Amino acid sequence: FNFNYKPKKKKKMELSELKPESVFYYFSEICKVPRPSKKEEKIISYLENFAAEQKLEIKKDEVGNILIKKPATPGKENLKTVVLQSHVDMVCEKNNDVEHDFLTDPIETIIDGEWLKAKGTTLGADNGIGVATELAILAANDIEHGPIECLFTIDEETGLTGAFALKEGFMSGDILLNLDSEDEGELFIGCAGGIDSVGEFHYREVPVPTGYFFFRVDVKGLKGGHSGGDIHLGRGNANKILNRFLSQTAKKYDMYICEVNGGNLRNAIPREAYAICAVPHDAKEPVRVDLNIFIADIENEFAVSEPDLKLTLQSETPRKMAIDQDTSSRLLKTLYAVPHGVYAMSQDIPGLVETSTNLASIKMIDNKKIKIETSQRSSILSARNDMANTVRAAFELGGARVSFGEGYPGWKPNPHSEILEIAVASYKRLFGVDAKVKAIHAGLECGLFLDKYPGLDMISFGPTLTGVHSPDERMHIPSVEKFWNHLLDVLANVPTKK
User: Fold this and answer.
1) Active-site residue, selected from the candidate residues 93, 156, 184, 306
2) Measuring CA to CA, how many Å separate 278 from each of 262, 308, 319, 323?
3) Which residues contact 415 (CB under 8 A, 6 or more apart)?
4) Are 59 and 124 contacting, i.e. CB atoms less than 8 angstroms apart?
């Protein structure tokens, strides 16, 4: 990779020619670097080579978090030290008809008018645009700023591993600017905490009787999205929709489930799900009729939020074995009982989701297990725990073994933040309108940073992204330039050390 940014003029519009050119140059570079969660070795190596090329001081901790330091520009040495922070990993989701290996293949980007997207996969702007922004600042020699520390954390998307492992003393800044928000013109000063709840069913394999019709039913075409930022939009959950059809089918016919699979990541609303089942051969046509009726009902329910929803049923190659029917019955009832969606709205901040839960994935794994992953979020710790216990109760009533993730804290808003006041004044001065000051229902690493560095003054902001955590992810190109100009103005106006 070439770490020394040099603008190039080309006949055809390229990613690195978008404005701001330096930011899109580095974004195009890291799009070439595979960086799935928990597989960040290549992007870590990239950052190490970048720091060496730029002759900047770099630190790496035990888990792979990277800190790159840059001295103040002349005359700005007395400003408070600012930590710019982004996570290096990305959600790896693709459409089923797309051939893409996230461990080896680059992200193929497409410029679509004012939007940047990827070819059938997640774009990785969450949080690659934050990483690219930091690299552009580190490489620049014409930007005014005080002492800067750029923190690049690992595994934000699947466990907040980097933020959890961050130790006291690794960074020394007074102010932290998290570059992981997704709405330009909005400044975030608080976020929800979360926890994962997992249920596991153990099943026996039993032979499917002779004279049965095997079919595969698919739910697809859903928008999916972020289980925090998009949970209030009323989008369909593929796992819930699939389970609803399977449950009604199991009540009418002697049904066997041979395979079931839905969703992928705990922090993504599931877009697709399928099951392979068997019913007596004389139920072949009635099942098709039932699905058509079901499709009409579901399309009516989701006519506005999910216009591309599709359910299909096709014949399947016969299978010898299936899940025992007792486990199948308990599984279907449990999936019906496990809640999904918004549970409570904030009583303090109008329009903010306070508590929610996401029925994220259903997977058949080794040793005859079915694993169901869910995640709960809330800005109130006790409410988060109560929601997790609600899910636990449904799992336990169904006979599943329950386990919980470590969980992470929320970030309590500080409306009197000094850096917030500077950012608000900067936005008004630059653009003539007021920035919106908000809290967010999605999880950010900021709550964990406060645990280790309670004196940090923090805000979070970024350009406009939509459809994150799904192949519909896209980034609004003009918003990147506004975000960049705002960030540079904030850096130039950081207060002096006391």
Assistant:
1) 156
2) 18, 27, 9, 11
3) 189, 437
4) no
Instruction: Considering the candidates 29, 40, 89, 230, report the single residue annotated as catalytic.
Output: 89
Q: Is 89 a catalytic residue?
A: yes
Q: 302, 309 in Cβ contact below 8 A?
A: yes
Q: Record the tokens describing residue 208, joined without a space.
A: 């499917």
Is the peptide bond between 207 and the residue preceding it cis, with omega within 30 degrees of 0? no
Contact status, residue 194 vs residue 443, Cβ threshold 8 Å: yes
Give 84's strand partners. 150, 177
Which tokens go with 209?
A: 């009787």
* Rounded Cα distance, 37 and 484, in Å: 26
pLDDT at 358: 98
Task: Evaluate whether 378 touches 370 at the Cβ level (below 8 Å).
Answer: no
The secondary element (H helix, E strand) that includes residue 148 is strand 148-153
Per-residue tokens: 342:
């918004």
Question: Could you give the CA distance from residue 271 to residue 480 in angstroms, rounded to a whole number?
Answer: 28
358: its two tokens: 């996401």
Each residue of 382-423: pLDDT tens digit?
999 999 999 999 999 999 999 999 888 888 888 889 999 999
Q: Which residues, including other chains, have CB under 8 Å from residue 431's CB and lie 6 or more apart?
A: 185, 482, 486
Give CA–CA dist 424/437, Å, rounded: 8
The β-bridge partners of 449 are none
Q: Which amino acid is at 182?
A: E
Length of the chain counted residue by residue: 498
Strands of 351-473 (E only): list them.
353-365, 369-378, 401-404, 436-440, 457-460, 465-466
> What pLDDT is attached to residue 492?
96
DSSP string over 78-93: TBPPEEEEEE--B---
How far lies 14's CA from each of 10, 11, 116, 386, 434, in Å? 7, 9, 11, 50, 33
Handedness of CA 408, 413, 419, 422 (dihedral sign): positive
Residue range 173-192: mean pLDDT, rounded: 95
| CA separation for the pair 25, 17 (Å, rounded) | 7
Tokens 């308990």 belong to which residue? Answer: 330
CB atoms within 10 A of CB 75: 9
Strands 341-345 and 353-365: antiparallel
What does pLDDT average to over the chain? 94
Cβ atoms of residues 307 and 368 within 8 Å: no
* Reported pTM: 0.75
CA distance 137 to 460: 17
254 is catalytic: no
Phi, psi of 150 (to 5 degrees): -100, 115
